[in-house]
Request: fold
Amino acid sequence: MKGRKRQRSPVPRAAYSVREFCEAYGISKAMYYKLKADHLNPREMRIGSRVRISLEAAQAWNRAREAAE
Reply:
C-alpha cells in the first residue's frame, strides 16, 4: 500500500452559488437579479463576501413557484 493515496468519499453538496443555482434551475443570472429586485429570489446566506443558497432554500423557492401558478 505504500505510495497509494486513500480514496475519500465525496462531500455532499450543501449549497449553491448564484451561478450554480441559475444553472440548476435553468434561469439566467439577469433573471435571478430581476427576481431578487422583486423579492422573489430564494433565501440567501452570506459567507464573507460570498452568497450561497442552501439546498433547502432552493427547494422551498421551487415549491413556492409551483404554488404560485
